[in-house]
Write a structure and sequence with these properties.
238 residues; 11 strands; Rossmann fold
């Protein structure tokens, strides 16, 4: 079985999937960490590789940038391919001084101003919780592997926040009780779809820029910064 966006047959994709926006990053993760890998999707260069990690079947798949792109692939994975668990590996920007460049953030709740849920499912939902089961596994593995993580709430934006005409006005609109500390562009849609299909989703982010400190990593530094986060996701999802 294939869809308009995924040429994989039923059974080609594992029940446990790690996703990232960048197809090249997905290729690098699969080649570095998996054995017996097979390319199961390449439509629009949204690569998906299935292989084994410590003897367990895992698929590593790209989702592109933004909720519309990620939402397509995650929807199909849950609805048509029988996927049960997804961990997103991504990057984020920090809005607070106590979260630094290269910190690993485990998203607890994701807030968005977007109408994604209304457009998809006629629901006005703007806050979604990550999977408690998956997050607990991530926290347990982080402790075991001595990997420091920060649990925080994130804002999922419809545009790259560095390009906003007035970031301060945007931040003023954020619900103060959520104590939002970082921003990215996909987790809300992934969490919402997990909720819709009664599946599990989690999100790990590496901090690559800081608005409060006016700092940012280069493109290469961003690409090279995800090894610990990748190991944490792989160990948690199996």
């Amino acid at each position: 079985m294939a869809t308009a966006h995924n040429e994989a047959n039923l059974g080609d994709i594992a029940k446990n999937v790690i996703m990232s926006g960048d197809p090249i990053r997905v290729k690098q993760i699969a080649e570095k960490y998996l054995s017996d890998i097979k390319l199961v999707n390449s439509i629009r260069n949204i690569y998906a590789y299935t292989g084994k990690y410590k003897g367990k079947d895992i698929t590593i798949m790209a989702h592109g940038m933004g909720m519309p792109s990620a939402g397509i692939y995650v929807y199909e994975l849950y609805k048509f391919y029988g996927v049960e668990n997804i961990i997103r590996l991504g990057s984020c920007g920090s809005y607070v001084d106590d979260i630094n460049l290269l910190d690993i953030v485990l998203v607890d709740q994701s807030y968005t101003e977007s109408n994604y849920s209304y457009t998809l499912n006629n629901e006005h939902v703007h806050i979604m919780q990550s999977s408690k089961i998956l997050n607990e596994k991530v926290e347990k593995i982080a402790k075991r592997e001595n990997i420091n993580i920060v649990k925080a709430n994130a804002c999922t934006t419809d545009c790259f926040d560095w390009y906003m005409s007035d970031l301060n006005k945007f931040l003023e609109r954020m619900p103060k009780d959520l104590n939002i500390k970082v921003a990215e562009m996909e987790s809300f849609a992934i969490f919402y779809l997990a909720h819709l299909f009664n599946k599990n989703a989690s999100c790990l982010l590496t901090v690559v820029d800081s608005h409060s400190k006016k700092q940012e990593l280069s493109a290469k530094e961003r690409q090279d910064s995800i090894d610990k986060m990748t190991i944490l996701a792989l160990e948690s999802i199996i």
